[in-house]
Amino acid sequence: MNYEFISALNHKLHTPLNSVLGFAQLLETDKALMASDFGKDAVQQIVDAGQNLMNVVDAILTFAELESGKVKLSISPFAPLDTYEAMLESAQRAAELRNITIDDLGIDGAAAHLIMVDGIRFKQVMDNVLHFAICASLDSSTVTITNASLDGMLRFTVAFHGQYADIPNAAVPFSPTSTSGETELNSTCSGLELAIATKLVKLMGGQVELERKQGTLLNLWFALPIVK
Prior knowledge:
By secondary structure, this protein is an alpha+beta fold. Helices cover 50% and strands 19% of the residues. α1 (2-27) runs antiparallel to α3, α3 (37-68) packs parallel to α7 (191-203) and α4 (81-96) runs parallel beside α6 (119-135). The N and C termini lie far apart (41 Å).
């Protein structure tokens, strides 16, 4: 019943949101409006706010699907390198808007191994984790991404440098009943995204963990099984 309610709500929210985004895109074609700093900024705020809300609505539905057991995975040997590089490149473009540097410290692990995952869901996990890496970072800061094989798993690690992400419960990092990484640093941070990534990784036989010291988030990593 919970899933059916959220599914119906999702549909009702998508319809007006699509109208808002559609008219905002129409405004972007108005040369006179976009010629002024005020008009350009106003339209961009409408587009950004509408897209952020759309992302939250989609995340709520995905989480409800996971909670209800309706997500079906297709697990098979998968080469993660292309997806890893594509998601990293996309994240680096987004990070540039806040002068955040994302350093890739080697892709040897991703290049050398096949992992047992659902390829589409692996892409979603990478996207969610890298999104959090950006939104939980201070402007003009640095985040490093590494991967390596360890104990039969391919581990992807996000290392933060000087960031203070508010994740209240280290034992249960991302749960629907906590802020799950939602911080005051940037309003686009969503605990739902990390909760979804955690559930997907575990459904694929993997592990997720965070490491912090004196309230400072140091590392966030997830690991997935390597094909034997």
